[in-house]
Amino acid sequence: MGGIFGVASKTSCVQDLFFGIDYHSHLGTRRGGMAVYGKDGFNRAIHNIENSPFRTKFERDIDELEGNLGIGCISDNEPQPLLVQSHLGSFAITTVGKINNIDQLVQNAYDNGCTHFLEMSGGLINATELVASLINQKSSILEGMLYVQEMVEGSMTMLVMTPTEIYASRDRMGRTPLAIGKKEDSYCVSFECFAYVNLGYLDYKELGPGEIVRITPESVETLSKPREKMKICSFLWVYYGYPTSSYEGVNVEQMRYNCGRLLANRDTVKPDVVAGVPDSGVAHAIGYANATGIPYSRPFIKYTPTWPRSFMPPKQSQRNMIAKMKLVPVEALIRDKKLLLIDDSIVRGTQLRETTEFLYQEGAKEVHIRPACPPLMFGCKYLNFSRSNSEMDLITRRIIREREGENDINMLDDYTNPDSQNYIEMIDEIRKQLNFTTLRYHRLDDMLASIGIEPCKLCTYCWNGKE
């Protein structure tokens, strides 16, 4: 995943840029970057943030960078922002998204006269550099950004900074958000709208799908109007979004309360306490507890000073170990208790199985699991949510393969139907393998109702495979 932030100010933008990017640290774990334009031209800093937070790596840079225009990012993939010199002039660019047809686009670039791309470790091409190359194939930055929207299969949200303005483009289908804030002497643009609130900005507008705007310290001008069709990612509310964020007018924390309430409405178990797997499961659990009157409790506490997110390390085995180490049990709140535990989702199942095991070891009588979304059935085609290379990493797909063999792909529709016998038996097999007392997933219709905007505007591909 990743997050981007930009500032166009009549005075120095560096401090706002620094804190605005830092507020996106929950979206990426590998690299951070800042680029500014000032009296000395473009200047940039990029650091690896795998082993320390963005803030600690860039504190020295904010004293050295100078400018009134700036863009930056938190990235799970390529180093960025990039500084580019081309027939369109010099500009800086940062992106968030996923390019599924990258090989085709690279070959097209070679066919059109591009001689080379810089190669990253592992033989990969920097996706942001490829986007810059696509922009440079047109006669203006606006035409180039529109060209990127048409050519990229997947999603691509972009910020492009010239010496006089910032161009901001939300991806064609609006799968990721982009919002603009305003204060007296500047405008900012941000993936997460909460990132600018404490910096003194007020909400100005949320870009629509495919919308492109030109931002200066004095104004925001729409250059390409929003498209009618939108498919914003539903998983932003369920998991990735920060609780204080809102997308399409719907707050993440409130959605999770709604989610927990609707989970409770279909449940029949009577646990002693309700708990959430920190952090993203907590609000869902509060919603469940509020709806039922069952006490909310914290039977384990998340220890975050060294590893704020469990997926930070590149190796899955190390991520599993860290996920286990950072949840510290509270034995007094576990022993002899019937626990109902809500997590945002179940992917492989490894971490939640280990969490359940240590609850039993601490004396829990029962552990009932309630994921806050339906069973994940498909790898995301549109956003870099996971480092997994195969859908067979999903526990659902492994079980379906075991049951159906090579015919599994033809049976997926039935397994996504919560009223089908195959679905019921799949859920029970997951329960047995992960050693839960009971297991009930959120239904897709209830989850969409928890969000509350038109279902046709929401992407649900990872649950039902429908685009």
TrEMBL record:
Mg(2+) binds at S280, D343, D344. The keyword Glycosyltransferase applies. It comes from the Bacteria. One of its GO terms (molecular function) is amidophosphoribosyltransferase activity. Residues 2-218 form the Glutamine amidotransferase type-2 domain. It catalyses: 5-phospho-beta-D-ribosylamine + L-glutamate + diphosphate = 5-phospho-alpha-D-ribose 1-diphosphate + L-glutamine + H2O. The keyword Hydrolase does not apply. Pfam families: GATase_7, Pribosyltran. Its cofactor is Mg(2+); [4Fe-4S] cluster. In the C-terminal section; belongs to the purine/pyrimidine phosphoribosyltransferase family. Gene3D superfamilies: 3.40.50.2020, Glutamine Phosphoribosylpyrophosphate, subunit 1, domain 1. It comes from Robinsoniella peoriensis. [4Fe-4S] cluster binds at C233, C380, C459, C462. This is Amidophosphoribosyltransferase. Keywords: Glutamine amidotransferase, Glycosyltransferase, Iron, Iron-sulfur, Magnesium, Metal-binding, Purine biosynthesis, Transferase. The gene is purF_1. Pathway: Purine metabolism; IMP biosynthesis via de novo pathway; N(1)-(5-phospho-D-ribosyl)glycinamide from 5-phospho-alpha-D-ribose 1-diphosphate: step 1/2. Binds 1 Mg(2+) ion per subunit. Binds 1 [4Fe-4S] cluster per subunit. Its EC number is 2.4.2.14. GO terms for biological process: 'de novo' IMP biosynthetic process; purine nucleobase biosynthetic process.
